[in-house]
Structures are given as C-alpha cells and as structure tokens.
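Lab meeting prep.
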Amino acid sequence: MCGIVGYLSFLCDRSKCDVVELLMSGLHRLEYRGYDSAGLAVLNGETERFELYRQVGKVSALETLLVERNAKRDDTLCSLGIAHTRWATHGTPSPINSHPQKSDRDCQFLVVHNGIITNYKDLKTLLEKKGYKFESETDTECIAKLALYIYDQQLKSNMPVSFSSLAKAVIQELEGAFAILLISIHYPKQIIAARRGSPLLLGVKTDINLQIDFVDVEIPHAEPPSPYQKPPGTSNLRPCKSRSFLLEHNGIPQRAEFFLASDPSAIIEHTKKAIYLEDDDIAHINESELHIHRIKHDINQSTFRTVQTLEFELSQIMKGCFSHFMQKEISEQPESVKNTMRGRINFDQKSITLGGIKDYIPVIKKCKRFIFVACGTSYHSGIAVRNLFEELLNLPAVVELASDFLDRKPPVYRDDCCVFISQSGETADTILALRYCVDSGGVCIGITNIVGSTICRETHCGIHINAGPEIGVASTKAYTSQIVALIMMVLKLSEDCLSLQNRRWEIIEGLQQIVFKIKTVLKLEQGIKKLAESIIQNNKSMLIMGRGYQYATCLETALKIKEVSYIHSEGIASGELKHGALALIDENIPCILFLTKDSLYKKVHNSLQQIIARKGKPIIICNEGDSEIEDKFITIRVPEIVDCLQGVLNVVPMQMLAYHLAVFGGFDVDCPRNLAKSVTVE
C-alpha cells in the first residue's frame, strides 16, 4: 500500500531534471503496490524553495504533468526530493489529497506518509483552533502542519530547534502506523525518515567503499538523569562507540547519495547498500552525516542498525520478454521452488538442514500445538500443510486468519509454536498477531520472502523462502515456495520418528521431482488460454471444489480468479457440497473440480457424480493417464506426485487460468483495482 521514494545528495552535481527522473523511476518500480494518485516535490537549488507536483491516476499521468511544466528539462541544481504513490484511505483521489502534503502555501514543511494516523482528528481540531487552515481531507496533512506549529512556537520563544528534535516532537504526538519522510525549507540539506509499523529503508551510495557496516542508535536513558549525577546541559544520550554515520576519507568529506524508500525495488538500480529502519526509529540525514534516534529506550531493542547488501538484481524486477509480472512469476516457479530448497535438502542422504530454525528445534519439538497465522494467499499455504503437520507430528495444527485471530485474542500458551506466514514480512495484521503471541510466551517462527522485514526481525527464528522479488499483486511463486518451505520444516521436525521414515522419504523424493514436474505443467498454457477464452464470454461466477490437500488449492484458485479477473469465484470443500453449495449447480455455472489421485479420490469422484446429475459441466483437474475420467469432460491433466505436494502442481494451471481470464477481460493484471501488494495497515 502506497509507495515512498526520497533522495538527498551531498557534493553531487545533480540537476532538477536528474532528481525528478530518479524519483519517477522509483515510483514506477513501486506501481505494483497499488495506488490511485502520485506526486513529488524537489528543492530548487537557486530559490531554495520546493516545487510541488501532484496528479490523480497512474504515474504516467504525473509524468505528463511534469513534461507540461518543463520539470524534466530544468538544469537547475537540486539535491533533495521526495515522491509518493497514494492508496486513498482518507479523502477521495484528487491532486489536493495526493502527497506530498504541505504545511502551508509556502511549503515550509512537506511530508509523504504511508499508513494511518489514528488521532489525526484530535490533532486537526487542535491545530485549527491555533489558526492553521487545512485544505485536504487526508490524515497526513496534520503531520506537516504540526511540524510548522512546533517550529513557529520555538521561533516565538527565540529557541532554535534542530530538525531531529523537531521531528521527535512531531512523532511523539502521532498515534497509529506510519512511514514518513519530512523535509523543510528551513533545513534545506536535511531529511527526516521515521517509521512505526510501515516499512522504510535507507540506501547509501559513495565513491569509496564504506568503512563501517553498522550505525549506532542514539538512545535516551530509560529514566531522566538526576541533576546531581550530571551537570546541566549534558547530553541525555547513552554513550556509544560511534553514534553517527559520517562519510569522509582522511578527514575530507566525500560525495554521498542517500536513497529512501518503502521497498528495496525502488533503490536497487542505484545502490545495494541499505539500512532497514525499525519501529520508532527516526533517521536524520544532514549533508553526508546520518544519525538514527529513538524517542524511548527499550531494553530488548538492538543498539545498532546493520548496513545490509540487497540480495537481488535489477533484472529480477523487470518484465523481460513477458507481458506482465504475474505471467513472468508464474513461469519462474521451477526456479523459485528450486531456490527454496537450495542448500537445504540432501537428496542422497534424505536429510534436511534449516539454518534459520536450527537453534530452536529442541524447543519447537517440545511444543504441544502449532498455530499458523496469516492473511490471504499465505493463509492458504498454512491450510495446505496443516494435514501434514498433524500426520507427521501427531499434534493439533490450527490455521488462523490474522485479523480474526486479533479480534478473538484466543489463549496462546508457552508450549504453542506460532508460525507467521507473510510474503512481504510487513503484513500489518500478521505483525500485530505476532506481537500478541510473543507477549503470551509462544515460540514464534516467521516464514517470509524479504530478509530484514518486520516479521523476520521480531520472530524468534524463521525460514526465508528465497522465491525472489514478487512484483505482481496476485501472489504466485511465493505461494508454492511457502508450501515447500513449510513441508521441509515438518520433515525436519519429524526426522526422529522411525515409524514415519518411509513416508518422509516418499515426500523427499517428491521434492526431488517437483521442479521438473512444474516445468511439465507450464507447457499446458496454450490449452488453458483457450479454456479461459471460452469461460470469460458468458460467465460471472465460478465454483472450485476439492477436499483434503486440495481444499487449500480451491481457496487459492478462487482468490486468484476473483482478484485479477473480477469474476466471483468460491472455493468449496467438496465434502460440503450437499450442505448448500449443490443448490448453485446447473448447466451454466463453471465448476472446477480437483480430482487427482490421493486417499480421497473416490470421495471426490462421488462429488463429480452429484455435479453431473444436476446437469453441471465440470472442468476436471486430474492426473496424467487417469483412465477413470471420461473424455467427454473438459480436463486439465497434470503429473502425479506425492499427495502433500500435488497442490503445488495443481495450482499452477489455475494461476495461468486466472491470468488469461484477466487478460481477456482487459484488466490490469499486475495492479488489480482496490488492491495493494503489501497490506501494511489494519
């Protein structure tokens, strides 16, 4: 949801058109997150005033506005700019509601913001009483006006205030979730970045190799110091070895560029050196110097932030020869699944090594229950492996929607193992559920695709699925990699049970075959494309049915179809057919039925007979060579594999079906309406 890009340079001869181009490139990289308007602001090096551009619609509409105003041909020196794609929460999409939001007509303070300020009405009422006039409907405008109010108060008191101190005063008044970039004409070579709940990272580019790989955090004392212990005026900061990140060589300041973004894809073409900010961090960049502050002391909080190397290439976030990112990511699944298993499975010895949870395995094995918590597609991956966890560990396994879990706040005990699944690692409801479980004493494991994400940092241990960047809003390769990662996890936890050894070996052999078999399934695309063309012509609703391991595939198929093609679709456990859904069956509604070989094959076959008896026309996903499925039916035949992995093969043609339904419908496949890739607010 929403996208943030920021830029600040020191001793670099950048023109305004260069900075505008850089910011626009970042916004284009963030288009996949979902948005309805866009804007940017740059500092004019001659007038030392901000120039503000905002537009409704796609980033291309903003690009047109910039061309009209000659902003892309201006050679004026420029060292500072911020940009934003907005997904409307407060106020309809309009230029005046777009970001950056300004403090006043002169743009003394400008802010871009992801998230929701929950106390914005109280702040707005207070500021209106002080004489500040609001022009937008957004919650973000109160941040800019609050900054101006605090600055004015300090000015009246003849007490100059630093930008970092002013930012702290602003942040202390905000409630809710946010990632913020704040700039001001009063601090023309500085920028503030702060986060609480929404992701934000900071990239660094220099002409010399960085001499340090961390930045100390400036943390205040937990208690105000006694005046008898320190003389007045002494800093209240905790002493540390190297508080700031200062770019210099032999005492000479060095050229530096800082890139700020809500997602690494926006900065990867400029630098691979990045620092992920954590909740309640306030980063202050002043020329070539970086400080990271915190408002309050937390004994469990790390005292430094690591300079990390981004582990992906620009080519991975480009479409290449594909028409859409979703199409590209569906085709990448043989490689993404292979990367999930790479270095973790020894097929010769039939053994599994998971370094991310290695130290916690003895603790996890003592747990009495597994709780999987997730949203959307990640929730379905939990359902996909629930049966196997119960089978191999002989323990109860429950799968919870994070939002419902938070609403109920069920009891969580110290001997519970709580598994949090999220592609981005920044899903708001899942993070809040994680914190609830941590407070309750459960062992918390993260299954994420993004190194350094909030879930990655706040869980006790975890597994990175290593699926590579996923740009399309509709998750595809992350789903199959999540299933494979979770299956490897349960295989590792059950390795001591000799009675299950043959079953474990069967699954490991299936994992060895799965990459080749996914490639086989991908060859079915032309047939699926023709099927999609016939479905799209007359149908506005679909039913998807299966049971056992395929129930999760039903739910995921239904979600994919509805989110990209806008066709109503419903995933149904076929064992529940007689309990209501059978009333919907007739000769007009398409019914997709998963009828692949497993222990429930005969039961699903009975469901097929019930559909036929009601003149239904099923589309059957079955195994190659299954002679029991008559040729009169429309079939999609996939390779046979061990039951717990069959869903990985079955879902791939359904992803292709959803994709082609959306293409034939003329819809924006990668950015479905009203949806965002990473849901970072509740």
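Slide two material, second protein:
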Amino acid sequence: SSTPPGNDSVDTDPCKEKVCLISMPDTQLVRGLLYDTGTRRLSERLGDIDSGEKENDNEEDIKNGNKNFTLKHQVPVQSIENFNKKFEYISPEAAVDLEPVVDGEKLQKVNTVLRKWLSETIKSMVPRKKSEDSSESGFIYENFAIGDDHICITKDMIAETSLSFSRDGLPCGQGSVTLMDGSLLLGNFRRGKRIGRGGLGGERLENLGIKSIGGFYTSGVLDGHGKVEFLDGMVMEGLFMNGYLEGCVVGKCSNGDGDGKVFIGDYQRGVAVGPCWRRQEGGGWLHGVVDKEGQFTGEDMLYIYPDLVTCLVGNFRNGVMIEARESMVDMIINPGEEGDILHVRAAAPGPGVHIFSYQPSDDQAMSVDYQQQDPYERDRVECRRSAVQNAGEGVFAITDIPQDTFVCFYHGIYIEEGQNSPQSNWDYQIFLDWQAAPASPSLDILPDAWSYKDYKASLGHKVNHSWQPNCQYAKFYHPVFGHTALGIRTIRQVARGEELFTNYRYDLDACPEWFQKLYSNNED
C-alpha cells in the first residue's frame, strides 16, 4: 500500500490538494485561496525569535552553532566555511528592541555574504544527512513526505504487471508493477521486493508535484543516493534513509536558465524543515521557516527580489503572498556550521507601509492598486517624457545598473493563446513566451492604464522600442502579478539617466502602422 506505515486515516483536508501549485494558472490559484484565506495581520515585530535563552556571546557557543544568536554587525569574510566566526552577536531579546535603521554598509555586508552563500550552495552543495537517527525505523511518515514506502508487493496489491509470480504470489523479475492505488513501481523484483536500481511514479507523487523518484533499493527499501524529478522540471538529488529523503539538498531546474527555479533546504523523514529557500523564475527568492508540511506558509515569510536586499515580508500560504509589506534583508540569523541552511531576517517595516498581496490579472482587468508602485522597480527606474520624438513617455534609469539586471516589470491583462484581447488596439500586446511565440499566451494594457499618472504599479509597458536596445524581455514570476507579467532585463550596463529600450520584435504582418514605418526607415 502507498499509505504511510501506521497511518490508516484518510486526510480530507482540501488544502492538501493544493500542495502542488506549479501547474495551476495564477487566476485559478488565487480563486482557490479565497475560500479560506485565514489571514492575520503581520506581527508588530518581525524580529521576534522563539527563544528564552539568556544573552551569551561566548566564542565557544558561536563556534558550536548556538541557535540563540542573531547577527548585529558583520565584517568582511574570507570564506563561507568559517564566516560564522567573524560576526558580533547579540541576544534575541536585544534584537527585537533594535530600531530599524537603514545602514548601507551593514546591508552591503549582509548582501555579500548571502549572495556568496547562495551561489556556492547552488554550485557545490553535496547532499548529506544531518543525523543518523532522524529517520528511525517505525516512525509514521506523513502522506506528503517525499519517499517510497512500498517494501514488499503481493499479488493482491497489483492492478497490472507483466512479471511472473512465485508460488506464494510474489512478483519476480525485471519490469514494472502498477498497484491498485495507481502507484507505478519499477525495478528488479525478487520475491516481491526490489533489489538494485528502481523507482516510483504515480498519482500520490503527482499530487506532490513529483514526476518520479529513483535510486537503489536494498531488500525493498530505497536507501542511499537517489533522485527526485518534479513535474515543473526541477531535479533534486539527495540521500534516502528508510525510503525517505533525508538531509540537506539542492534542487535545480534542468532548463539551463541561470535564473531558473532552485530549492535549498533540509529534509527530515521526507519533509522539508527549518529555514528553506526557493528561487522563483527570474531570480527572486521565497525564504522562511517552512510549516509542518514543508510549505512556505507562515506570517514571517519573505519574498526577496533579485537584488537580495529588497523584500516583501508577511503572511504567505503555500508560497502565495496573502499580505506582506516592503522591507529590506538586514540580518543573518543563526549562521550555524558549514553546510547548514542560512537564515535571514528582514527589518521591521516602517509605519504606513503599503500592503501587497498576490493579485494576478485575468482576461478582462488588472486587480492591483494602480497607484501602488513596486518597491524594487521604484528604486531603479522612473517614468518621464521620452527623448525619442513622438514616443510619449519613457523609462529612465535613476542609478547605474549592471548588465543582466532586472529593472522593471510588464504587467497586463492575461490573454490565453488563441484568445482575442477585449480591445482592438494592439500597440501594447506582447507575448509571454518569446521562445514559443506565436504559440504563447500574451499580455495587453487596457486604455485606463496607458498613462503613467493613471497607472504606476508597473512600468515595463513604458519602455520604448529601439533597433539597438539595452534591455530585453524575460520570464519573471512576480509576487504580486504571478505569471501575468514579464521582467525587463538589461543586456549591457546602463548608466544613470539613460533611457531604457527593448526591441519589440513585432510581426510585420500584424503590427502597428508606426512600427511598419520605423522598420522601413531602418531598412533604408
């Protein structure tokens, strides 16, 4: 049976069906969350740390990864391996009383450590188990755990197989077995147990967003190095104990995109625990201490923008932002020892800070507050009259921007492939997937958002066209817009005050008249 050992109850919680969110359209997802948002306001102090320990700045405690320390100041570090010895620490009690002060030098040092840790972890973390006894035999595994609990298969459990059976009704030989519950087992069966290389697929895994689990089996038990392939293309390699994923792991998407999805976390008994990281498409990160089901659910979760400083902190459910406020990553909590998962904290938002929530568009309207600016975009660009004749408004850099940096976002109504926009003017219509176009959904801007004074929630549609662009469109998952947005990323360094341009790449057979004239003039 695929039911975890010792757990015969049937879980009817409808939220469990929403564990796999990766393939659900954004507009359906947000509607699914409306039935029971359970929202609570963000705690007054984001620095609260669950600890009653007294202040202790003993060097030996720091060396041993004492969990009751938080970062106050930082000094440059020479290596990630020993950076936990380089900090000055304060007690959690003192940390919660600190006034939020924007300290540029401190922010830069935190950012340097975080950026280096993420980069080196993604490149070189070796899967490892954290303790020998964390997957003790006899533990009741949850039905959302990543693992394989099919140990000995008998004839009465099988729906379909080409294998032969022993006299006592146990499958034997190399091949596959489909069980009554829909699970698909692969491997070399000896008296009902897999030996050597094998795997698992089927409905239970698909409900977790998983395509398959594979590895080596000893007497029917998955043990040692294994691989988990997710439905969204992510691949996670790690260690299995008693059939379940265990220890620190890194999961990566295999699409070759440097800004693709990544997961960094620690698993115990097949469930992610403690502080975890999940990079979204485009380079933003979800971060926080996951809930008992290994989900990014809680009141102090962070969405961190690609600069690894700007963030939105607040109430998230299964990675979806319910209610959050603008802040900055300003503290590293519990650096721990080599190989541990880094945990960061955000400064307490100031008074009167806007509330952000997940509000993707549909095919008729944009749901966001038109006057609420994106904090990441606001710190990099501004909208004013373009330097290009008759171009109207344009977007300009307000600071020097390096190459390969997302600077602003293009959000509009979401139009499915083959569907028509509710307006006839196609000046602002753009494909969401430029690689698949024209077989792609698209975005469009309705007239009530054409002017900057009327709509400030995103500025990407104000970036003008050029045959020598300094930016390009790229996929970006946004915490407010979801997948109903594109990111605009620099393709070279852009100086402060310089106007941003992209190549619109219109199809000449279906493009505005002004673009046809511009194309003809360029050809001349």
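Talking points for slide two:
The two ends are 72 Å apart (CA to CA).
The helical segments are 26-33, 59-63, 92-95, 104-124, 203-207, 375-378, 513-523.
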